[in-house]
């Protein structure tokens, strides 16, 4: 039995809706806006109108409250939704130190408070 890759995360995910510009690396015409459902220090999940393909290299511009961060990553998993869209999980592979710090701050601010 294979474990679900979504359950093998090293970084916790925070449920949050952020606008993200998604582009396949090497395909300038593939730019599309999407909305995240979860974001974490190691990646994010967003809803996209088409399949990107597991393993596809992508560049993301993720809108945070104070800035936009740039991340390069790869599609780790995707699932077709009944409405014809795709839930896409991306692992961040390259994020600048400055953008990573901004992401950590935004996630800390968005994380639900402990009971």
Q: Would you kindly provide a written description of the structure presented here, covering whatever features stand out?
A:
The chain is mainly β and 115 residues long. It has one domain (5-110): Beta Barrel (Thrombin, subunit H). The chain has one helix spanning 97-110, and strands spanning 13-15, 19-24, 32-40, 43-48, 57-63, 68-80, 86-95. It has a six-stranded antiparallel barrel. A hairpin with a 4-residue loop joins β5 and β6 (68-80).
Short overview:
With 115 residues, the protein is mainly beta. Helices cover 12% and strands 47% of the residues.
Break the fold down into its secondary structure elements and pairings.
Elements: E1 13-15, E2 19-24, E3 32-40, E4 43-48, E5 57-63, E6 68-80, E7 86-95, H1 97-110
Antiparallel strand pairs: 1-3, 2-3, 2-5, 3-4, 4-7, 5-6, 6-7
